Amino acid sequence: MLIDAFDRKIDYIRLSVTDRCDFRCVYCMSEDMTFMPRAQVLTLEELTEIGTAFVELGVSKIRVTGGEPLVRKGVTQVFKQLGKLPLKELTLTTNGSQLPKYAAELKAAGVKRINISLDTLNPAKFRELTRTGELQQVLDGIKAAQDVGFERIKLNAVILKNRNAVEVPELVQFVLDNHLDISFIEEMPLGSIVEHSRALEFCSSADLRDIIGPKFKLEPLQAQTAGPSRYWQVPGYHSRIGFISPHSENFCASCNRVRVSAEGKLLLCLGNEHAADLKAILRAHPGDRERLKATIVQAITIKPERHHFDLNSEPQIVRFMSSTGG
């Protein structure tokens, strides 16, 4: 029996294994980022226990995220344990830097798909956006994932009007040439930043399709996934070109997912603060999975119907994506 939230079913969780990264992304551009003490972060065993509880409640898809999940020491044990569960899909969101080291082990553990964050193909701009990242590391990671044969590899690109919007056609050409998918994501107001004005930098999914249109003919796909991306295709190619539109094309009505942060907060909506503390239950009642499942079921009853983002006001959500889980 799947967990009920209004008239929808929760079938997908994003499980964040760490709030730490080896380099930053568009969502974490503030100089004021701080990371949680280790004691506040879920242990590998607690992460596996939460995943197991959700699967016993009927969830069939788990995505492991961060921060950058592959910088967590011993994290492959989480994948190996989750891979033993009766899941339809075990996936990973990563910046790609560690994939040359871990791709084969992840594939063997049961990971089916990989999402790789990549906002630019310009090495200098990549270094500027990430502070310390090297584009070639990510490109090597993509190649490593292709070499071991994951079912699908998708890039995620957050697009800002005056930062990287001009590169969108190049990103499309890259995924077509390399048999990848891509999702272009409207920036969400998570955390306080000083590097740019979100209102001035906002680039809608419709704007992006207008940028792509002169070079590539886009045709909407009739069959869509259960996720927030709405997919299009370029005739003659198998690559899917997706658009995630939390501002301009709100997708809350079809939301079938929740997140668990690295500190064990069950986050019921990316754009709201509604949450339940699963870590507190795990540590106060170790081994009591039924109590944990009851807490999850009760929390789902307060899942908000939708979020309300305002680009012209202070951010409603003060946590960064590194602590939320991508």
TrEMBL record:
[4Fe-4S] cluster 1 binds at residues 21, 25, 28. Residues 5-221 form the Radical SAM core domain. Gene3D superfamilies: Aldolase class I. SUPFAM superfamilies: Radical SAM enzymes (SSF102114). It comes from the Bacteria. It comes from Simiduia curdlanivorans. GTP binds at residues 14, 63, 93, 154, 257-259. GO terms for molecular function: GTP 3',8'-cyclase activity. Pfam families: Mob_synth_C, Radical_SAM. This is GTP 3',8-cyclase. It catalyses: GTP + AH2 + S-adenosyl-L-methionine = (8S)-3',8-cyclo-7,8-dihydroguanosine 5'-triphosphate + 5'-deoxyadenosine + L-methionine + A + H(+). Belongs to the radical SAM superfamily. MoaA family. S-adenosyl-L-methionine binds at residues 27, 67, 117, 188.
